[in-house]
Each structure stands twice: as C-alpha cells, then as structure tokens.
Amino acid sequence: MAAAPGLAAFCRKVWEPVVAKARRAVVFIDQPCAEVLHWCGGAELLLAAGALNVKEFSSFESGGSKQPKALFVVSCPLRGRALEVIKDVVSQSSFQYCIVVTAVSPSEAADARTLCEQMEDKLCEWMGNMNFTAEVMWAPLMLAPLSPHLLVAPAFSSLFPLLPSQDLHTLNLGRADKKRFPGLGDVDLPSMPQELQLHIRNLLSGLNQFLEGIGVREECYSVGHLSRIIAGELANYPLAKNRRKTAQSKASLVFIDRTMDLAGMGTISRLFFLGLKVFSLKNLFLFDSLDLLNKIKYL
User: Fold this and answer.
1) Rounded CA gap, 285 and 171, in Å?
2) What pLDDT was estimated at residue 207?
3) Does pLDDT of 293 surpass 70?
4) What is the DSSP secondary-structure string of 84-136?
5) Measuring CA to CA, which residue among 89, 84, 59 is closest to residue 71?
6) pLDDT in the model for residue 295
7) What are the phi and psi torsion angles at 105 (to 5°)?
C-alpha cells in the first residue's frame, strides 16, 4: 500500500502543464475534464495561475473583445462535435492565441504530428489570421482521485457492456447466417460498433499512460465479455511493451463488467460478486473498500 498515495499525486501532477498555459486565458472545459479538475484542485488552480475566466465548453460561449487568449480542455478526440464547438467559440471571439488540450493521446496514429499541425492551421483559420498562434497539446486527464485509493474516470461513465438481448441482435443483423455470433463470448473488438471501438481504444491509451506514470507492470484479469476484450487488448497493447520492461512495481488489474455486479452501494453482501471478492481478498484489495463503503452507508 506504500505506493497508493502516488495514485492521487499522479492525477494532480498531469494538470501542471495545463495550468501553466492558463495565464491570461479564457478557459473552456468540457464536463468530464471539469469533474476531474474538481477532484484535483478545482477551478481555483486555473484562476490562481492567472486565468481570466473558466467557462463551459459550449457553442453558446465565447471570449470578450479584450480577451485575446483561449485555452480549451477536452476529454475527447479532436473531431466531430468537439471540433464544431471549438470552431463556434473561436469564430465568435477575438482570439489571437488558442491552445487546445485533449485527454486522448495521439500517439497511436502514425501521422499524429501531421494531425496536430492540421489542427493548428484550422485554429489560425478560424481566428482569421494564419500568423496568429495556435497550439495543440495532450495530457492524460482521465482519472479523478475521490480518495487516495479510489479513482474514477468520468469520460468513460457511459462505457457499458453489450447486452445479449439487444446488442447481440443488432450486431447480427448485418451478418450472413454462417457468420452470426452465437453469443457475446464470440464477439471481438473489430466486430463492435465503431464508436464503441474508439471508446475502448481511448480507455486503453489512458490506462497505459496512467500505469506508465506510476511505474507499474500489470497482470490483467477479467470477469465478463467486455472486460475480457479490454483486458486482452491491454495485455497485447504495443505501446506497453517498453513500459513493462522498465516498470519497478507490478499489480493485478481486474476488469469487471458492470452488468456482473448491479448491486446497491449501501452495504456489502456475499450475494454479489464485488462483495464476495471484498470479503475473500480484503487484506489484498487495492483500496480500502470496506472503510469507504461503510462511510457511504452512513451518509
């Protein structure tokens, strides 16, 4: 447990390069990153660093005529809706210097540098002058430290396992009879919807960067169909090879499908999977679940 306090410290440390860019800027931050920031010091961190204002990441927001610098902090890839919002905000403002920070690592893309340069050109175009300044950065802003031993990932709150009754039927609709999946256990990552694949790959990237940051080599275990896929992908993750060679510590990483443990948080019971594991592994558990859940019980 000696390394556990480093988990929360890492979550706060990754905000340092973001905070350093906040001086004299209007900050636009999306909901997941705002939730993470709340547990890492709050908006006060940005304001103390000299930020002029902190606003919601929304097309309905903009900067003032005397506010030439903007800082965007988003939890998603720079495409689709996120790109539209940035364009709307910049087009409605008088910015001369724009910085975009994304929590999704571009390192998986072979042309990551080219993509960043293209994004910077777009920012200058939206500002109305190609001689203005634009920067695109990445920071692993994935985890919020609710306690020294409990972290949550707000950007992945909607990640939910496939359901046999509905999702399996949908996956099989466009497949020939001989290629249909008999059950969820036969579904692999390339067969999943594109948005779900992207969500999982973003999670894998974030987990890998987190494990690298705390210097841990993981052993993956899983319970449930989606967890099996995620654990397998992380175990074979190409960018994790060097990390595992140099890691000073190791830990067991257990993935559990949310559908495997739909239980109330008010008490601990052996009737549920998580409760059973807490009782059987309470001396080895990665965080003090009994203490935490007992506190929640009496709130």
Assistant:
1) 36
2) 94
3) no
4) HHHHHHHHTS--SEEEEEESS--TTSTTHHHHHHHHHHHHHHHHT-TTSEEEE
5) 89
6) 42
7) -70, 135
Q: Answer yes or no: is pLDDT of 66 > 70.
A: yes
Mode of pairing for the β-strands spanning 150-152 and 144-147: antiparallel
Residue 108 has pLDDT above 70, yes or no: no
Backbone torsion region of residue 24, taken as left when φ is above 0, otherwise alpha when ψ lies between -120 and 50, otherwise beta? left
Query: Rounded to whole angstroms, how far apart are CA atoms 34 and 22?
Result: 14
Give the Cα separation of 240 and 150 in Å (integer). 23
- Fill in the amino acid letter for 122: K
pLDDT average, residue stretch 261-265: 56
Residue range 112-141: mean pLDDT, rounded:
93
Average pLDDT of the chain, as a whole number: 86
pLDDT (mean) for 83-103: 97
The answer for residues whose C-beta is within 8 angstroms of residue 20's C-beta and 6 or more apart is 49
Three-state DSSP at 74 gives strand
d(C-alpha 180, C-alpha 187), whole Å: 10
Residue 183: pLDDT over 90: no
Mean pLDDT check: name the lowest of 84-98, 99-113, 139-153, 265-279: 265-279
Helix axes 80-91, 112-127, angle to 10 degrees: 30
CA 140/CA 154 separation, integer angstroms: 13
Q: Do 161 and 95 touch, CB atoms closer than 8 A? A: no
Beta carbons within 8 Å of 285's beta carbon, 6+ residues apart: 277, 278
Pick the CATH number of 5-138 from 3.40.109.10, 3.40.50.150, 3.60.150.10, 3.40.50.2060: 3.40.50.2060
Whole-angstrom distance, CA of residue 75 vs CA of residue 155: 6
Q: Where do the domains of the chain lie?
A: 5-138, 146-297
Residues across the chain: 299
């890998």: which residue's tokens?
A: 208
